[in-house]
Amino acid sequence: MNYKIYDNNSTEWVLLIHGLGGSIKTWKYQIEDLHDYNVIAVDLEGHGGSAFEKRKRLLTRSASDINSILEKENIHKVNVIALSLGTLVAMEFAYLYTEKVNSIILAGFVLNMGLGYKSLLAVVEGIKYLVPKKFFYPMFANIMMPHKNHKKSRDFFIRESVKMKSVAFRRWLSELFRTQFKLNEYLNVIKSSNVPVFFITGNEDYFFVNSVKRAHKKLSEASFSFIEKCGHVCSIEKYHEFNDLVINYLNGLKKPDNTKAIMA
């Protein structure tokens, strides 16, 4: 797993996990603003500078790879910031290595979809083998990010995803589908460990916005914030607002008062 460290001489660490088709570059708007924290950003398997292996347990393997990196760099605990598909990896990592997670910020959370969207995802899961790569990626991007104000995020996704091998893209989509049924397992571990969680979503993230609302009901002690007139990739589309929410939340964790005041 390829990774990069931004050492800001801090005692605290932030771990950045990008979404499907992304890379470390996904976080270009966040890394500079996170100057009060040491930052470690990873390329998920088959993305960016990371290789892809045709082996099972892709999600668990990714969490294990991240843990190996943290051990190698002598990093004991991290605040995890994850986007889209990266939220699956973040939840798996927190599930397996709870003691290494200080907090989790989940942007564009992709678990706990309703039956209709699960059915749509199942259709996408089926046609991914039939539709040529050059048509499938733009089609998938337009389903996820359909509006004009989503163009910047949509174009970034298409540009980065075409660099991926088709087999890696398909395997990660399969993980997205299969992991939909693990939410309760994840939440039980997070609840029992009292790990602080913050959901951030664009109010125009139509594919997943209700998923986030339902997940928040199951984890009512978590913080939750909408970003208005924003689609799925809020860390790019409305990065100023996103960064403010993230930094205020992380700063709030250092104080004795509760960060739920962030909720909007």
Provide an overview of this structure.
- The protein is of the alpha/beta class and 264 residues long.
- It has helices spanning 58-72, 85-96, 115-127, 133-144, 151-161, 166-178, 183-193, 209-218, 234-237, 239-253, and strands spanning 3-6, 13-17, 38-42, 78-83, 101-107, 197-202, 223-227.
- A seven-stranded mixed beta sheet has the order 1-3-2-4-5-6-7, with helices on both faces.
- Helix 2 links the parallel strand 4 and strand 5 (101-107).
- It is globular.
- The termini are far apart.
- Residues 258-264 have low confidence and may be disordered.
Give the structure's gist in a few sentences.
This protein has 264 residues and is of the alpha/beta class. It contains ten helices and seven strands. A seven-stranded mixed β-sheet has the order 1-3-2-4-5-6-7, with helices on both faces.
Order of strands, widest sheet: 1-3-2-4-5-6-7
Q: Going by CATH, what is the homologous superfamily?
A: Alpha/Beta hydrolase fold, catalytic domain
- The number of distinct helices, counting runs of at least 4 residues, comes to 10
Total strands:
7
Set out the fold topology.
Blueprint: E1 3-6, E2 13-17, E3 38-42, H1 58-72, E4 78-83, H2 85-96, E5 101-107, H3 115-127, H4 133-144, H5 151-161, H6 166-178, H7 183-193, E6 197-202, H8 209-218, E7 223-227, H9 234-237, H10 239-253
Descriptors for this entry?
single chain, 264 residues, alpha/beta, Rossmann fold, 7-stranded mixed β-sheet, 7 strands
